Amino acid sequence: MNLKLGDNVIMKKNHPCGCNEFEIVRVGIDIKLKCKKCQRVVMLEREVAEKRIKKILDKI
Question: Span 26-49, mean pLDDT?
Fold first, then answer.
């Protein structure tokens, strides 16, 4: 999956705040995602993040 810094993605499951849209903040072995609603940061392994991403939206 071609993930780039600044991409907005929709995840399969919602964040506890109720939002399922995240911004990619860091790309590497791990992917760091920032929730668009509550601004909390979540860090996932690349394989896990790629499985959980439903759709890649346009860059900011």
Answer: 96
